[in-house]
Amino acid sequence: MANIIVISGSPTASSRLHGLIQYSEAQLKQQGHEVVHLQVAELPAEDLIKANFASSAVIEAVAKVERADAVIIASPVYKASYTGVLKTFLDLIPQKGFQGKLIVPLFIGGTIAHLLSIDYALKPVANALGATNILSGVYAIDQWVEKAEGGGFNLSDELKSRLDGTIAQLAEELKWQTLRQGTPAIR
Question: pTM for the complete prediction?
Fold first, then answer.
């Protein structure tokens, strides 16, 4: 099955974004995919801010992206865009680091008004990194994710349905990607 990395741009461990990530990871693992979670805020801050390409932590994180067949980019939306900590990591990915990979945005914000943050903030950066297949992904609003007593998250039925649709689309695209890569060129 496919190797998928989730790049989380949340600066906090208690973000409702983790509800989307946990649900998606569980669904993908259930389908047999290998899922790796990269919490950007756990990388050394100085290495991110100073763009230390030689940092062992940065090298390891970028290598995980290189090995992935698909990249889920997850972020809360602040000031109509994804987080700055996520941007600092994206800046460390090589120029064509997303080439040949499926990209799936998972964003969450306080209002539906920032829905276009995926199109206007993330997609241009993903395209600059070589992405050519960016799936529609999911934009959720905070009220669709409740923090459960004792930890964890409860997602609304609508959000689960939207995540299920995106995961199904990703699985289908991964299947076609595998078929294309395994088919010899016709001459």
Answer: 0.93
